[in-house]
Write a structure and sequence with these properties.
79% helix, globular, mainly alpha
C-alpha cells in the first residue's frame, strides 16, 4: 500500500495535479453533459451558458490583477443573448448576436472615461470572441436531431487528446514542446494524443455518427491541433497574467477556463467538419 501511495505521489508531482480528483471531476462533467442532452437539449445549452458565465468571472478577476477593467456583468448579459440567438437562429443567429454585442460592450466602456480604454476594449473583445462566441458552436453541435451523438463524439475526441496526452506525457515525456509556455507539455504526450485521438475519431465517426472512419481519423488529427493550441493559448494567458490556474472551482483542474481551454477552439472545427460532410459527401 505504501508503494502505491509513493507511485501516486510521484505521478502527482510530475503532472502538477492530483490525479484522483482530476479523473473524478472529468467523469462527472461527462455524465452531466450526457444527462442534459439525453433529457432535454436546451438544458445542455443552459449548461454551456453557465460554464461560459463562470469563465467570464474568472477571466475578469485575472484581468483585474493587471489593472485591466472589463465589465463581467455586461459580458454575462451578452453571453445569455448570444446563447439564446444561437439556439433560435443557428450559426446566423450567433454571428448577428456577436456583431450586435461588440459595439454595445465597447460603448458601455465609455462610462469609465478614456484612461485604459484601449486595454479594456481589447480585453473585452477577446473575452467576447474567446468565450461566448466560440462556445456557441457547442450549442450548435447539441441543437441537432443527432445532437447527443455529435456532442458525445466531441467529448470523446477532446477527452482522448487531453487524457492520453496527459498520461503519456507523465509516463515517458522527456522533451518539452513549448517550455516557455507550458513546461509540462511534451512531444511524447503530443504523440500519445495523436495516436489515441485519431483512433477515437475513426471509431466514433464509424459507429456513432455513421460516417466513414477515415474522415473521423482526419478529424481526430484536426482536434489534436485545435485542442493542443487552445491549451497553449490559455497557458500563455496565465503566464502573462502570472497565474497558475484561472480559478479553483474544479478540483484537479483549476478553474472553468482550465477545463474549457481545449474545448473552445475545437468546437468550431468539429462543427465545420460535420457541416462540410453533410453538404458535400
Amino acid at each position: 500500500m505504501d508503494d502505491l501511495h509513493s507511485i501516486n505521489d510521484a505521478i502527482n508531482r510530475r503532472a502538477g495535479r492530483k490525479l484522483g480528483p482530476s479523473i473524478l471531476v472529468s467523469l462527472s462533467l461527462v455524465a452531466i453533459v450526457w444527462a442534459s442532452l439525453a433529457f432535454q437539449p436546451i438544458f445542455f445549452a443552459a449548461l454551456v451558458t453557465l460554464a461560459v458565465c463562470l469563465g467570464i468571472r474568472e477571466i475578469s478577476r485575472a484581468f483585474a490583477q493587471v489593472e485591466t477593467k472589463i465589465s463581467s456583468n455586461a459580458l454575462i448579459v451578452a453571453t445569455i443573448g448570444l446563447s439564446a440567438a444561437t439556439w433560435q437562429g443557428g450559426v446566423a443567429g450567433l454571428a448577428v448576436a456577436t456583431a450586435v454585442a461588440l459595439p454595445i460592450l465597447l460603448i458601455n466602456l465609455l462610462r469609465n472615461g478614456p484612461e485604459g480604454f484601449v486595454a479594456s476594449a481589447t480585453a473585452t473583445t477577446l473575452v467576447l470572441v474567446y468565450l461566448p462566441f466560440l462556445a456557441g458552436f457547442l450549442i450548435l453541435l447539441g441543437n441537432e436531431s443527432n445532437g447527443l451523438a455529435q456532442v458525445m463524439t466531441f467529448v470523446i475526441l477532446v477527452g482522448c487528446n487531453d487524457t492520453f496526452g496527459y498520461f503519456v506525457g507523465v509516463l515517458i515525456g522527456k522533451h518539452p514542446m513549448a517550455p516557455k509556455i507550458s513546461p509540462k507539455k511534451s512531444w511524447e504526450g503530443l504523440f500519445g494524443s495523436i495516436v489515441f485521438t485519431t483512433l477515437g475519431g475513426g471509431l466514433m465517426f464509424h459507429y456513432v455518427l455513421d460516417i466513414q472512419w477515415h474522415i473521423g481519423a482526419i478529424v481526430g488529427l484536426l482536434i489534436v491541433f485545435t485542442a493542443t493550441s487552445g491549451d497553449l493559448i490559455e497557458s500563455a494567458m496565465k503566464r502573462d497574467l502570472h497565474l497558475k490556474d484561472m480559478g479553483s472551482l474544479l478540483p484537479g483542474h483549476g478553474g472553468i477556463l482550465d477545463r474549457l481551454d481545449s474545448v473552445l477552439l475545437s468546437a468550431p472545427a468539429l462543427w465545420l467538419t460535420l457541416e462540410l460532410v453533410q453538404r458535400y459527401l
